[in-house]
Design a protein that fits this description.
With about 180 residues, the protein is an all-alpha fold. It contains eight helices and no strands. It has one domain (about 45-175). The protein has helices at about 1-25, 30-65, 70-80, 90-95, 100-115, 120-130, 135-145, 155-175. It starts with a helix and ends with a helix.
């Protein structure tokens, strides 16, 4: 079974790449022109989202290096500790809604300090995989399609982040604690 699965996975991408032109041929799609048209749209999209992406990256950098994250961590640490959430997870909970890359860096720091099989390492890993980058989604994805009025999107996204953060801590504590 393992050998067959290995063979299938080794040939999956080449087979898929062969399937596309064959399918296009039978559908009478002019493949090269369709590719160029799609690439042109992709470049246009990249140009449209660039200001939003740069603004988001600048905001995250200011938030982290300006000391706001450290200050919020110190303020929220006792609150998290009082309800049984490890204080070490506060920076991750603050960074994750803003930046996937920044949160991955915080997760790597936590895992480096406590180990991947520690309770805190497992909580950090679960949080990293189950929460989303709410502000990034609003800035880049909504910006790319021209959405200017977010309405309830920010509140719902942050509530979802908080819910998955708390669920991550609870589930890892229940399974591994």
């Amino acid at each position: 079974m393992g050998s067959a699965l290995h063979d299938v996975s080794a040939w999956a991408v080449p087979a898929f790449l062969l399937l596309i032109p064959v399918y296009a041929f039978f559908r009478r799609v002019r493949l090269y022109e369709a590719f160029i048209r799609g690439a042109e749209e992709g470049v246009g999209m990249a140009v449209r989202i660039m200001p939003y992406l740069l603004a988001m990256m600048m905001a995250v950098s200011i938030f982290r290096h300006g000391g706001a994250m450290g200050m919020l961590s110190r303020v929220l640490g006792p609150v998290f500790g009082a309800i049984g959430i490890p204080v070490e997870l506060v920076p991750l909970a603050l960074m994750r809604p803003f930046s996937g890359g920044g949160a991955l860096g915080v997760t790597a720091e936590i895992i480096g300090a406590y180990g991947p099989d520690s309770l805190i390492g497992r909580m950090a890993s679960t949080m990293q995989g189950s929460t989303d980058t709410t502000f990034f989604v609003l800035a880049v994805y909504f910006g790319s399609v021209g959405v200017k009025q977010y309405r309830y999107s920010l509140a719902v996204g942050l509530m979802a982040d908080l819910t998955t953060f708390l669920a991550s801590v609870y589930i890892v504590q229940a399974v591994f604690g």
